[in-house]
Write a structure and sequence with these properties.
By secondary structure, the protein is mainly β. It has no helices and twelve strands. Keywords: Disulfide bond, Repeat.
């Protein structure tokens, strides 16, 4: 068992050469949050595919609220704690055959969470039906991950004109606008014009 405490910035990794459990109990300073980014995880095959090899919990212990549990390849997944504790468990049982290099993640202490109106891993499609509102890219103001598509359907219910105003706009340069872009369409979902 490995226990890491009060780590501001660290990388944790395990390999699949031996069966073991790894626990991270990150306790950062008051007023901060834990940003946890999985870089890779193993693909597993076995008798009980419901057994999750990686658990991430929002709090200091195994009984804290479950944020995410998974078994299989997972790259560039960003998770945030709601407070200063995040509990992570990597379990490598003997009866499951696994492919891959192991489990790798980076965690750090941050002083803010993504904006509540930003697109997240769990909410990538949004329907906005009010006269005013806000939206933001994936986990804004943090740098977005690769291959993320966020979609907002905005309507007011009475077919009035909708105006978009960008308070902040910064995307990486792309010759053909295929790497990172914002696309705005006008009209109903079935027939939209750019």
């Amino acid at each position: 068992m490995m226990r890491i405490r009060k780590t501001v910035l660290a990388t944790v990794s395990t390999d699949l050469s031996r069966k073991h459990d790894v626990y991270l109990d990150n306790n950062c300073t008051e007023g901060h949050f834990v940003k946890f980014n999985t870089e890779s995880s193993p693909m597993c095959y076995g008798i009980d595919m419901n057994e999750k090899l990686v658990e991430i919990r929002d709090g200091p212990s195994s009984s804290s609220d479950l944020i995410k549990a998974f078994c299989g390849y997972l790259y560039d997944t960003m998770v945030f704690s709601s407070g200063r504790h995040l509990w992570v468990r990597f379990h490598s049982p003997t009866y499951i055959f696994m492919l891959g290099d192991g489990f790798s993640a980076v965690f750090e202490m941050v002083n803010q969470l993504p904006a509540p109106f930003s697109c997240t891993e769990y909410r990538q499609r949004h329907i906005l039906n009010s006269t005013t509102g806000s939206l933001a890219s994936y986990n804004y103001p943090f740098y977005h991950e690769n291959s993320v598509q966020c979609i907002w359907n905005i309507f007011d219910g009475v077919n009035r004109e909708i105006r978009l105003t960008f308070d902040f706009f910064e995307l990486p340069y792309s010759n053909d606008c295929k790497d990172a872009y914002v696309e705005v369409n006008d009209g109903p979902l079935t027939q939209t014009n750019l």
